[in-house]
């Protein structure tokens, strides 16, 4: 097993990739940096088809200025070994194997999109370990509009070789202002030139979309699960998410007992990358306040 302690004085674009082998046999690729006074890290869970390099430095670095952060590829994704699960439930179990391998008994979670599905299951599976929850651009299992994506979003998201244009179409509102901020985001992702992560494959795409579809199968009874999430929760969303529809975020905020919602204007799925400084400030304030309560 090879693992590292958090690295201070580094950023999203300069921190080295580390590896740790868990009890399930998976070797997880991750990046760990920053420092938390209370020793509790914030674990970031990535979107559909994303890897370590898809996290926006303009979002993560301001958060890491005040706390320890951990970016991780789940099983079979990017530089991690193993097979990508086709269910959210198994993705959550795999991530708990990762935190166990690092010896982390208590942590906060930031889940974006598919990562937000997994974050919800983590909070329910191990409530004593997950302290606070940030859910961005995501939605609840079984809710209306959650079963798959509309035709144009599915087409753009399931290309064999995704392009920048595909990502702009999916992630940002179809307005000049949102698109221009999306182009700035794509430029930021190119800032890391060394030790880049492995690209995700078509097998990752297919298994993850199976998990997305299974999560969204209509079943209103599953909404009751949200009442079991007792952690303080911050929900972040754009006002017109075309991938995971915005009303689902209102459902999350309404049914999770201790949740608050912030909706960004003129924004779609990647509102946190369109407004990275604002999102980082909201996350920092939320975690500071929730952790002190």
Automatic annotation (TrEMBL):
The record's keywords, sorted A to Z, are: Hydrolase
Official protein name in the record: Alpha/beta hydrolase
Q: Supply the source organism for this entry.
A: Curtobacterium aetherium
């Amino acid at each position: 097993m090879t693992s590292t302690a958090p690295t201070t004085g580094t950023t999203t674009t300069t921190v080295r990739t580390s590896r740790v082998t868990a009890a399930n046999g998976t070797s997880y690729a991750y990046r760990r940096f920053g420092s938390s006074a209370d020793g509790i890290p914030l674990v970031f869970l990535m979107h559909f088809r994303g890897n370590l390099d898809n996290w926006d430095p303009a979002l993560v670095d301001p958060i890491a200025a005040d706390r320890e952060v951990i970016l991780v590829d789940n099983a079979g994704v990017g530089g991690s070994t193993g097979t990508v699960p086709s269910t959210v439930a198994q993705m959550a179990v795999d991530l708990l194997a990762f935190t166990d391998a690092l010896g982390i008994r208590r942590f906060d979670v930031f889940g974006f999109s598919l990562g937000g599905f997994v974050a919800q299951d983590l909070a329910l599976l191990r409530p004593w370990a997950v302290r606070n929850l940030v859910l961005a651009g995501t939605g609840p299992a079984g809710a209306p509009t959650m079963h798959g994506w509309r035709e144009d979003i599915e087409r753009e998201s399931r290309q064999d070789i995704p392009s920048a244009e595909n990502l702009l179409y999916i992630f940002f509102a179809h307005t000049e202002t949102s698109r221009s901020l999306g182009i700035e985001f794509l430029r930021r992702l190119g800032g890391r030139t060394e030790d880049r992560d492995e690209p995700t494959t078509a097998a990752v795409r297919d298994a993850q979309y199976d998990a997305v579809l299974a999560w969204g199968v209509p079943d209103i009874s599953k909404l009751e699960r949200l009442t079991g999430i007792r952690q303080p929760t911050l929900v972040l969303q754009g006002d017109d998410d075309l991938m995971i529809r915005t009303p689902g975020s209102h459902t999350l905020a309404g049914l999770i007992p201790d949740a608050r919602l912030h909706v960004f204007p003129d924004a779609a799925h990647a509102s946190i990358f369109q407004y990275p400084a604002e999102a980082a400030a909201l996350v920092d304030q939320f975690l500071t306040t929730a952790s002190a309560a």
